[in-house]
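MODEL INPUT / OUTPUT PAIR
PAIR INDEX: 1
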Amino acid sequence: MPSELHCLNPECRAVYPIDEVIYTCPQCAALLESGDPSLTLDPAATKRLWRERRMSNTPLDQSGVWRYREMLGFFNERQHCAVTLREGNTPLLNAPRAAEYAGMDAVTFKHQGFNPTGSFKDNGMTAGATVALRLGMKRVACVSTGNTSASMAAYAAAAGLTPIIFLPHGNISYGKLAQALEYGALTLQVEANFDQILALVRVLADETGIYLLNSVNPFRIEGQKTIMVEMLDQRDWRVPDWVVVPGGNLGNVSAFGKGLRELHAMGFIDRLPRLAVVQAARSAPFYDYFHDGERSKFVSVTEPETLATAIRIGDPVSWPKAIHEVETSGGVVERATEQEIADAKAVIGQCGIGCEPASAATLAGLKKLRAAGVIAADADVVAVLTGNVLKDPDYIFKYHTGGLKTPWGQGIESNFGNRPVVLPNDAGRIAEFIAERTG
């Protein structure tokens, strides 16, 4: 059976052709998932093939997404053309100082900020743009607080498509907005929040024939699941105990869980790692839902707030997928305050790694989960950093100089601040100061 689109509602389970331009089930409005139920791969042979492709110079093999194309049932390399900027290929980085801060023996960061546009969005966008081309679309659109817009603009430009970006007016990192402008996107700032704009754009997409590339697009999830395939390949298929990831629109945890389940079902791994999702405290509807004993209704946050703009989302579209993946893995959901995120970000920087604010939610959440005894000190943990350190330089400067404040007036303490020092043009005085400060 070829790859299809499947409704995730257990009471519906409708199936649709892979080339139908839909994002949710027309019958019940539930999310859709791309997949081939008949897919089987020989683990030993496929692992060898994937490892051999690392030595290839062909564009598909140089991509950390398309190298694992056997996992992407919607793509046939003999029939389809992939839009690739050599995405993926992101490193695993050991961080002893971050581990000590969290109370762990060790922690490894899977740093998606090494992607072409500086975030994990590229792993999904290469798949979404490829399908847009295959479907004959001319214009693509997304609603974004930053990373999605930067990624979509780049991949649309590479594919010869017209990118249209909708974003909340005044609520975006200029480092990310600058990327979208540089890649030629038609950029529309709307006076509404992310969730309101997404509802608007979904109506516009249906009426105008624009292909939507937010995480509601099932093919974005397919691309993002290869982050876990690559991570396991890099670890020689040793399964970590935990994978920790920030939670905004929840596309990542949905993708990670799907990829891990598929690998487990086909015998590539012998168990599933537990998934831990960390949200910002004032943008944490998934945390509230997970810890609600009855879980009778998912309640969105109408005015989400956090300086970690990439996860400032109050009505995450992928929450039904995410709750399934967290529960299937025996995982947890945590939340972190603005102070906790800011301090964790500074500690990651002290490791020589660096990340955008939303990424640091992983370390902040890991520290809390360790303190609560949920994660053992000797657990094997991979924490995903989602974006590059230069995505929000204004945040970094204000933290280290004592000027970081939230929109609701809370000041952030610079507990790990590194304020620049002004000195006179005097070699002797400067040498004396350096000796005092560095020993």
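PAIR INDEX: 2
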Amino acid sequence: MNFKNKTLWITGASSGIGRAFAIELSKKKCQLILSGRNKGSLDQVSKICKVNGSSTLVIPFDLGDENSVNLAAHSVIDKNLNIHGLYHFGGISQRSLASETKLSIDRKIFEVNFFGTIALTKKILPILLKNKKAQIGVTTSIVGKFGFPYRSSYSATKHALHGFFESLRIENKENGLIISMIVPGRIKTSISKNAIDKEGNSYNKMDPGQDKGKTAESTVKIIVNKLENDKKEILVGGKEIIMVYVRRFFPSLYYYLSKKIKPF
């Protein structure tokens, strides 16, 4: 994927990895559609992107609200923009035991992380497929590769994203659609602070492991490079990434080590 002069839509662009990704991508001199819930933060990102030489369009919406997703999609479709890339960084994390979490909270996490993401994809997919080569980048997590304590529904949504988008990739192998699964480990962002607890309230704490994680700025440099090379799976993070390989190749060792995993 050559990003220069391409029109690229980024969700979750108001904070964290999504914000850093938008700023890094703006150095490629492209047209960016920036989305998230916080318009004020998106406007700030937009200013930085413009300084870097890219044009921007700010489209705020809520991934957890199907009507909001549809309105955002149609507002872009009505502008007849030829979208070459769709990059999903929007989402919400969790900090609660499965046994104590209300089912309504499980559903909320799925609405944001899974259904909102695939809803926008389905709306924009016809535009992407008109291009000879288009790209979708989907941010999951290493806990989309294995279960993790206090992240039951969050982990489940990330597993679901792998299943959906890997299927979509195979279905469109003849259509020039590139799908890259972005799999971060512990990245130093506010994801733990913005996570929700068993009642749906903000967790509002920085996990010690998260606080020691790779910076978002260094993370996105790797992601952009891998996307430019059309990598199907992009693992990025610190030493915790090794657990993905342990789970794949040494399951017995993984089951032993998983008992010792610190959830925070």
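PAIR 2 NOTE: The chain has a mean pLDDT of 95.
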